[in-house]
Amino acid sequence: MDADAIAKKRAERAARKQQGAQTNGPPPPPLEQLIRVREWVPVRDAPEGKRLRVVSWNMLAQSLVRRELFPGSDCLRNKDRFPGLEAELVAYDWDIGCFQEVDCIQEHAATLKRHGYGHVFERGYDNKQHGLMIAWRSNPNASVSFDAPMYKRVVYYDDARPRELYAHTHPDAAPVSDDETDGMASFAPDAAMGSAGAASTTSVSRLTRNIALIVALADSSLESGVIVATTHLFWHPKYAYERARQAAILVQEIEAFRTDPAHADIAHWPVVLAGDFNDQPHSPTYTLLTGQGRTYENELRKELRESRIVHSSVDDVRGMRTANYAHTSTESGDSDRVLGRFRPPARQELLSLKEIQRMFSLPARDGVGSLQSVYGAALPRLITDESGTYFRDRGTKPERYDETERAPPTDPRQCTSTEPMWTMYSSLFHLTLDYILLFPRLSTAHDYPPITALLRPHPDAVLAPGVPRKGVCSSDHVMLGVEILVVIYVERIAFVLATASCRLPASAAAQRVLIVSDPQVVGRDTYADSPAPLFHILRFFSDQYIRKSWRALRSVAAPRADLVVLLGDLSDRGRWYTVYDAWYALQRRWQRLFRGIAIVRSARSPAHALPALVVPGNHDVGLPDARTGQSTPANAAAATWFREAFAPHVDATYTLSNTSNASWNARIPFAVGGNKPTHELVLVDALDLVSMQPLLALPFDSEGTQLAAAKVRAPQTAAMIDALGAELAQPGPHPVRVLFSHVPLARSATEHSCDVPWHTAQHRVRRESHRARVPGGAILQGGDLARTYQNLVQPDVSAWVLDAVQPAAVFSGDDHDHCEVVHRARRPQAAGDGGVPGFARDDVPELTVKAVSMLEGVRRPGYAWLALDVQPEGTPSVAYTPCLLPDQVQLWLLVYVPFLIITLAYVAWWRTKQPYTILPQYTDDVPMHPLGTPRPRAPPQHTQRRFLRTVGTIAVPPVVVWLALQH
Q1: 253 in the same domain as 274
Q2: Nearest to residue 240, comparing CAs of 307, 300, 183, 291?
Q3: Domain assignment of residue 754, given as a range
Q4: How far is residue 263's CA from residue 228's CA, in Å, rounded to a whole number?
Q5: Which of 306, 517, 711, 720 places its Cα 20 to 30 Å from the Cα of 491?
Q6: What is the pLDDT of residues 548-606, one digit of tens each?
């Protein structure tokens, strides 16, 4: 019978025993008789919102229990331990549990399933008797419930290659010099050893068979979730290097896990790491995890030096024991105080201190580049006084069975730590080894998920003389628990999640450009035929949607923008305004919605604000008729006002400068990673491009007569485009160009990706299905049916622009929905070697950016990121990502409408519970009258009127709160 069949038989037998015990046996004793139950204690001033409870516990595997390790314990046999283990598992109403030293998995799995939890269990190695388990609440009726893991990864520390892992997560990192040894002993491998030391990339000092388990759990009730990792690091006190190596590998594995492009949908989720780290708060592992490595570098070097050796188990598995025998020595003594049989490492065989330190350093976000221990951060902030229970309060209390007291502590890490005094308290050892750690969030300015409560630690008076002990705890470790805030408000979190899920691959030195199109802030003429109340409601919700989107992009989104490009149509029908004050008030409205930007109009960068460039749209200044080239109805004064307020100032070459010459055609050079321009943003007046070749005009002929005549209609635009083309004819190198236009260039009906799925593989750009089903959904030549794509710039003009500018990419707006098209018109040798990854060298991708407004015919508005970067070999490159914002209608339907229905149903039910009488209902709510004066009765209140008043009484307070949250 194989192992799986044996496990199945054992599970069935355990289930039968459990069922028989529940049916025939006495009821289980109360929890208070099995364990010492603790309470969840809130943190002072904790914010409100949806909360998640995570616990961590080393359960003490039954296969590791020995009488000599737990003298005096009455809780060592499985039949004595299991009731306490089961009670501890179900006592604290947790949502996610991380467990170490788990065996007897069939029995524990039955307990978890019975109480509404799912789980994954990993032993890691076939001959290992215990393993790791992560469990989650799977009851769909609970307030927090998770589905089966979306992703799972097991980390095998013995086989991990930390240098390769770090190079994968930090491709731009400089290598550590070969002579970096931190003063630690090493030897050069001789001929017999060969390259075993230098070529080995595992950097392992001892084979330990330890593992880590990482899972991504999706919340059943939200489009969100949590990434959870648990581990049990190597136990031996003398092997500090190996523990630090294992922890460093785990940090990098988690970072690689959540930044993997295949996991882009979970990158913004909170990350919790919990487990038994087998190191105390003044140890190297804890010091490095919590970002104190630089502060205590000398202490780390001293503590790691002694354990920077190679155990004979490593040479045994490599078949190098005989070859390295001459370098091997043996220490004798207590097993937990000696290194055993070992040798010094060969050069580069192990990690240096510098390599270990940088593996613990996460990319700094808002100054946060390390993990946060939940107890170390929040235990002093509980509403109860926990004085005397901190790690720093130990004083001279002994840690080992052979000590009566210890010397007074002098290490600042020990004297200041607010971790629990003990998390492991056996008869022989009293230590703090277990932690719950939070990763900094990738996408927010709030550093870490807020901590709202902790599971109160046991005082040493309860744990003494040691556990496991009946009535206290069935393990020698104490369960830890944290409650964190995962959702604050649905209106806020939806925008946070949307902006955080859109990632832009780029190096730290890249310049990041945020592209926003078509906000079309509602003006007085937007809904001229609508009733005034409806107009104000639509304007309110439209403004709030843009405000919440912008707030998320500015304060939450990662990465932060270096520049914003506004692709026109900033206000709706602003071109129709004839009174300056009214026009100015409309422009101020959209500027207030995009709070914190400063319009760039000269070469001087604005201070203390996010610079923004404006491209004019047809709603801002008017658009020539695509068929005749003549101006459409618009107020010339409004176009002049817009130009004078927002157009950039350029010199004779149309480069951004400090002159007073305002033009909608401009060139903005960028120097990435140096002083020489590597990129150039080109803003073109697309309204001129539309007027150059109306549909009624003849195509451009080969001699250029028609082109020359067309240039007369747009002299400034033609002059800049010709100048750009002339520059490319000169010897290079030339900066890589990116073109911005409010109106898209001409798109072929057979090659555009707006409706053709196979063109969307690179960025998954999809047209919204309800738009694609509209009759005439293909690209139109001229005209605007409001729900279709259109070509207003004709093919000949587009070809001329692309041939002269030779951009790496084009960004446009106007059509309100995403569209990605490839123009095959690029000459890499003429415009530098930079291009967009994923496209051919002669491809010029054009992305039409979605409108950022919720009123422009799309359910999910959007925006785009652009990265101007330089590759390691010095080649400029361009990368971009289209992004989506939340569906506001879906938020209303899935959140607010159900709450409204529940409110009405409750009020109707509540009214049925009121006393019933057949007599008419009167009220005495009238003024007092003099004696002898008849006292009139007020008319009876109608039942419907009372019902509405009750609904109003209940509904008004939450509505007021909701309105307050919109700002």
Answers
A1: yes
A2: 307
A3: 512-886
A4: 14
A5: 517
A6: 888 778 755 455 788 999 998 888 877 777 788 888 888 888 887 887 788 888 877 66
